[in-house]
Amino acid sequence: MKIQQFLQQHGLAANPFADEDAQTDLVFKTGCLTSVRHPAWDKIYGDPREPSTAVVFGEKGSGKTALRLQIARQLTDHNADNPHTQVLLVPYDDFNPFLDRFREQMGWLNRRIDRTLAQWRLWDHMDAMLSLAVTQLVDRALRVTQARHPASRDEPLPLDRLSPSEKRDFLLLAACYDQSTAENRDDRFNRLRIALGLKLWESYWDWAVGAGVSAAVLAAVALGGWWSLLLTPWPYAAAAAGWLPRLWNFARGAYQAWRIAGNTRCLKQPVGMLRRMLNRLGRRNTVGRPLPTQPRTDDRYELLAKLQGVLRAMDVAGVVVVVDRVDEPYLINGATDLMRAFVWPLLDNKLLKHQGLGLKILLPIELERLIDREDQEFRQRARLDKQNMLRGLPWTGQALYDLAVARLKACAAPGSDPHLLDWFEPPVDRQRLISAFEQLRVPRNLFKFMFRVLTAHCNAHSDEEPQWRIPSGVFESVFALYQRDQDAFDRGVGAG
Q1: CA 79 remoteness from chain centre
Q2: In 10 A of CB 244, how many CB atoms?
Q3: Of 348, 371, 391, at which residue does a domain stop?
Q4: Which residue of 88, 198, 253, 351 lies most exposed, with the fewest beta carbons within 10 A?
Q5: Is the residue at 28 inside a domain?
Q6: What total of structural domains would you count in the chain?
Q7: What is the reported pLDDT for 211?
Q8: 302 and 195 in one domain?
Q9: Are 354 and 390 in contact (CB under 8 A)?
Q10: Domain span holding position 425
Q11: What's the angle, vertex CA 29, arms to CA 24 and CA 33, rounded to 5?
């Protein structure tokens, strides 16, 4: 008997338990994204009008990816309904580019990934988050249609509301942190300058001085008829002296660019390109303003404040950063000690409680077991008691039963009203399902188990003699086998 026949008999147009990963689960995205939420949803999501931090530890399959997708959807709805108090969503979940560039900066002595991550600091996380936020903002300012960002509104940003100082801050942030790979950064910088309406003529004064002095020397020689002076070094020395300001600015810009490239260790910063952008901004717009030229957090906090000022002027009241998939980078590959080295610098109370910034940090359960082993210095720095921390994402049997019912409704064929209890013969009733689901613990285990039950039942019957209800014996035997496999996986000796 085919599974599709069984599903059609019970009024279903698709298999509600075929997918296990929320990232590719169409049933979840189309039918459960807004209707089915974890019981701790309100604590994790908070209120977008006052973004707050939440630190969540969850085992594999407990719904961390689903939470990330639901946060994005909820913020999309919030931004659509509240155009004057929008929230900028920054997905911080693809760490491979940042780790690769960081490793390159560390040199061959630190090629081992444990040595590399031992050098990772809080300001590296801040550089990565600033680059994601600024790149998204520049994309939206330039109306880059091929760049899609979650939760952002479709209309262009109101750049005309920015004051001259905020426009310069925006350009400075773009010079330091725009990491677009779709376009040349030089071109994007110039397009952004034009879109902001900034002329920056004052940045070319050194060129004007050099050209003016050279022209004056040539004019003096021509008008005075002192052509013989051209055979001496003096007119050339005078003309060269006029170019000393340009030479000084070039050297100053190159030094600044070199310092920024060396201290934004997780970003790709071509020194020549960065120097040209800093020189176009001019000394007036860079001296005295924060730049990431030092290995410290102070400059990053100031730059974060600059970014928030630019956002507020464009009706974006807060920033939400969603941290997820820390176990997936190929350099970390799920190793607990490497995840700890990478994540622990991020757990800093000053950043986690920064006004107008909410970090939703979704971490594997393996890291939760290390929290209690940390010393007092770590606890004082992280202050996890103030961060809406959840030690796990537990699902009760009733919650998983409701989830299964909701997925059936999402897969229902037009005009049908499927019921989960109709799948099973007595004595498998609602209470037995809830009891079994309680032991499965997380949605992924529920989906795997239900798919196994369905497969085992359909394989036991032919198309000529179908049976539309699953016997209790099949349910119990598959449940016992799945518990054995689940126990092996929990002990680290099974594939799951």
Answers
A1: 18
A2: 13
A3: 391
A4: 198
A5: no
A6: 3
A7: 79
A8: yes
A9: no
A10: 3-17+396-490
A11: 135
